[in-house]
Each structure stands twice: as structure tokens, then as C-alpha cells.
Amino acid sequence: MTCIEARGLRKTFGATVALDGLDLRVEEGRILGIIGPNGAGKSTALHAMLGLIPYQGELKVLGRDPWADRELLMRDVSFIADVALLPRWIRVSQLVDYVAGVHPRFDRAKAEGFLTKTAIKRSARVRELSKGMVTQLHLALVMAIDARLLVLDEPTLGLDILFRKRFYDSLLHDYTERSRTIVVTTHQIEEIQDVLTDFVFIDRGRIVLECSMEAFESRYLEVTPRPEHVERARTLKPIHERQVLGRTLLLFDGGERAALAALGEVRTPSIADLFVAVMGARA
Hints:
By secondary structure, this protein is α/β, with parallel strands linked by helices. It is built from 11 helices and 13 strands. A 6-stranded mixed beta sheet has the order 5-6-7-3-8-9, with helices on both faces.
């Protein structure tokens, strides 16, 4: 079944075009990464999906119009914004009690499990927590809600690498236990590559590349040719070339692995390397 479907999605802020006829389809049970430079339209696309802003074009999320049916939609959706906004006066224990009281799908034990992996004291007020702790608290609350769709906008912004690793491990574990769809935006591409089932590159409000991880791993190859084979490798039309420690690295879209392996070392590139190649070609 389709979880999210957008056709010709458009959003402007004055003279600024944030979404320019964006087309996107996300099947249920997938983990989609939306990757793009600052100002590409990532957060705007998420806000449209969540019914936070009006838009032009067609958009359905879990079969509903997000703008017209937001109240019903949010019963099945959880959202983590790039900036955690929690009441500064409230204590951590009171906040857990509050969410447990207002959200029928909140799992208190799951939230407590997340919190035990942090240094957050239950008696502390939000204003007494560091920025990273506030983010950890927000993640613990939202991840404990049994939602069909989880939307994450830079979820680990401001967190140290240890907690980021724990978070993505927990996210993947939670995904395998439940039937849910996850949409995530982040600049930390390397950290989510092993979590994703699909990814899209967005630039200037449009999707410029859409790919499953299965297709990515079979379609793209990176080659470090031996010095005597560099020119031969270039004749095979790589989509990107870069220099690392005096060696030439070439990125190919398609191509015979065996033929390329005869020229040098072949590997699957990172999504970050592909992103640089695709965006560099558009500059």
C-alpha cells in the first residue's frame, strides 16, 4: 500500500519557491531518507505531509489530505522536529505523565527504557537540561508512540556521536518490531545509510534522484584505477571524479564490475559520494 503520494506539490513563500512541482511516492513499511542541501525544500515537504502548511498540488498521507484531515491523520503519525520544543517549566516525570495521559498509543515503558540510557533525571525541569538532553527527552517521548508513520527532521541534531549511534540502532530495532513507515531528513548521511531502504535527493524543490538501496548497490560503482589505467577508466564516462591522497577515484552509473575491476579497485560508493556527484553536476 502507498503511505505517501505527492503529485505536482508546490509551495511558495512570497517570491521564494520552496517546492516546485515535487513528485514522490513512498510505500508502507519503507525507511526513506530525504537528502538535500540547505534550502532545498526538505523541511517544507515534511511540513506539507504533516498538514502544518497549505500547499498546491495533490498530496495524500495514509490515504488522507493532510491539510483537510490533519486531526485524524495525527493519530497515526509521530513527528520529531529539528528543534525540540518542550515546556521549560515542566519536570521530566510530569512530561512523561502528560504524554501518557493524552496519547492513547504512548508506551510508558518504552519511553522509560530510552531515558535509562541517558543522564536525564526524572526530577529535573526541562530548563535545567542541556540542549542535547532536551533532544534526547524529545526522542524518548516520540519514539515511544506506536505510530504508522514516523517523520524525523534532523532528529539527532546537536547530539554526540555515541547517542546518535544508539538512536539509529534503536530506530532500526523498533522498525523491525513494528509495521511502520519512516521518513527522515539529515545532513549526517553516512550515519543513516545502513538504516535506509530508499532515498531521494532533493534540490530547489524537486526530486532529482530517487533510488532504493537495492538498486543503489547494484547500479553505482566507485573505482580507484591503477595509475597506468586512469586515462582508460576516464574513457568509460564516469559521472564524477575526485582526488584523494594523490589517487584518482571515479564514480560510475552502471558499468561492468569485471571490466572496471581490471582497471583497479572497485567498491560500492557511499550515498554521500553519490550526493556530491549528482549535486556537483547540477551546480
